[in-house]
Design brief:
Layout (H helix, E strand, L loop, with lengths): L3 H4 L46 H7 L53 E4 L2 E4 L8 H17 L14 E5 L5 H9 L4 E6 L13 E5 L13 E7 L8 H11 E12 L6 H4 L8 H14 L13 H7 L2 E11 L9 H23 L4 H20 L8 E10 L44 H4 L6
Parallel strand pairs: 3-4, 3-6, 4-5, 6-7
Antiparallel strand pairs: 1-2, 7-9, 8-9
């Protein structure tokens, strides 16, 4: 049995052809002068969770080796600490008018609306914290995705991309991996919090502090891929978000949305808890608080409604469905990592919502979250339970038409369907998709099927 630190050893991806750049697996900590008025301790957010602690090791201990040659995999302890002053120094200028990117979008840590409540640190109204505990959880989630997708960072068939945009980049690992894989591509990661590394990263990546609910400052018809992952509940108006993404994508450019199904109403998940379990109270209350916050409609993930993307103008939609097995019994590869993410996630996603919108007391929420986490772990490790203790993960991809106005909302039936509209049979003529891309050549039935793995 090997620890997570031994299995996920610091290494530079072999996928990049740029031999002049290498990320030091153990970069030195930058010297930072202490400032009493800083919202955080010197160097940024203090690490309050130790990835090498015995308690965490009990969850993260895994079998076998992690072979990663396609994306960056680093222990959280190898990241350089954030400097108080965060800035992006150069706008994107690779074949696109650099003036279209506002180079004055340089912000500093003190300009970010940090809020510390209930022992967690948040930004603005966003309900998920951004402190080091949450950063560790995001790091572990990234490892789960890498293993789920066989070390591939995207399901989209990119061909020599020049501009990739990651919305809600978080700790930035996905964006860094894409910058390593495509060294000639400009990669931008945006977020409302500066929690990404700013040293020892690929030369072709920039992190911007931006709120995606504001007007985007990206050039039109330029981006090859706009990527969203784990963004359920992040935005009040997803139609606006998708419209902004559509405008900045080049003709034929891709959008990819990855998010969990509604585990709080999914029978694949909820049915494993006994009827008397207080987990059902937690799941119901969380759903009500999400609706009350105005960040989601009934049912999750409502932002992955295909009709919403079709109404925006996207074509060649392809939904896929995956099983994220909880615990090693369900998945020997990443089950224990995913279990850790769930156990630490209950309080992370629920504390601010339940206290703010339902008026629950902090200690009651914390006690309930701990109880649900303990019960979840017991179910995952129960050798007598039935199989199928999983969370569903949905992936939805689509493209901006290569021909303006092709198969847009104006061409749909009143119910939003595409029945009888054009010839989308994959004959290779390009009718219906605008070209002969891999996904576009599929039949409509194939494109809209859900491939469970």
């Amino acid at each position: 049995m090997r620890s997570i630190e031994e299995n996920i050893s610091p290494q530079v991806s072999n996928g990049t052809d740029n031999k002049d750049w290498k990320r030091d697996p153990s970069p030195p900590q930058p010297a930072v002068d202490e400032e009493e008025d800083s919202p955080f301790a010197p160097g940024g957010l203090e690490v309050d969770i130790d990835i090498n602690s015995p308690d965490l090791g009990n969850v993260l201990e895994v079998d076998g080796d992690v072979q990663d040659s396609a994306a960056s995999v680093y222990a959280m302890s190898s990241y350089p600490r954030m400097q108080p002053e965060y800035q992006v120094e150069q706008p994107f200028e690779n074949g696109i008018d650099g003036a279209t990117i506002d180079s004055s979008r340089t912000l500093y840590a003190e300009d970010v609306d940090y809020i510390t409540v209930h022992g967690r640190t948040y930004v603005g109204d966003y309900f998920i914290p951004i402190d080091a505990t949450e950063q560790t959880r995001q790091y572990v989630q990234h490892q789960v995705f890498l293993k789920l997708f066989d070390l591939e960072l995207t399901t989209v068939p990119l061909d020599n991309p020049s501009y990739i945009l990651d919305i809600g980049t978080g700790i930035g690992e996905w964006a860094i991996g894409m910058a390593e894989k495509y060294p000639e591509c400009e990669v931008f990661g945006t977020d409302i919090a500066p929690i990404q590394p700013t040293q020892q990263v690929p030369f072709n990546i920039e992190f911007h502090i931006e709120n995606a609910e504001d007007e985007w400052i990206r050039p039109a018809n330029a981006v090859d891929l706009v990527h969203f992952r784990n963004m359920a509940g992040a935005f009040a108006d997803w139609s606006f978000i998708y419209q902004q993404a559509f405008e900045c994508l080049r003709p034929g450019g891709w959008i990819e949305i990855i998010d969990y199904d509604d585990l709080y109403t999914s029978q694949d998940f909820v049915s494993f808890y006994p009827p008397e379990s207080r987990a059902h109270l937690f799941f119901k209350a969380f759903g009500e608080a999400m609706v009350a916050s105005g960040r989601k409609g009934p049912g999750l993930p409502s932002h992955m409604d295909e009709k919403m993307l079709i109404d925006t103008g996207f074509v060649d939609l392809k939904p896929s469905l995956y099983d994220l097995g909880i615990g090693t019994r369900e998945n020997a590869s990443f089950g224990k990592l995913w279990l850790f993410s769930l156990l630490t996630g209950f309080e992370a996603v629920a504390m601010r919502l339940l206290t703010r919108y339902l008026g629950w007391e902090e200690e009651y929420v914390r006690e309930l979250c701990n109880e649900v986490a303990q019960e979840t772990r017991e179910i995952a490790e129960d050798p007598t339970r039935p199989d199928g203790f999983v969370v569903k993960l949905r992936v939805l991809v689509g493209r901006k038409p290569t021909v303006p106005g092709q198969w847009t909302a104006k061409a749909l039936n009143e119910d939003g369907s595409v029945e009888g509209i054009g010839d989308y049979t994959g004959s290779g003529s390009g009718t219906g998709s605008g070209d002969e891309s891999t996904i576009g050549s599929m039949s409509r039935e194939t494109v809209r099927s859900e491939d469970t793995v």
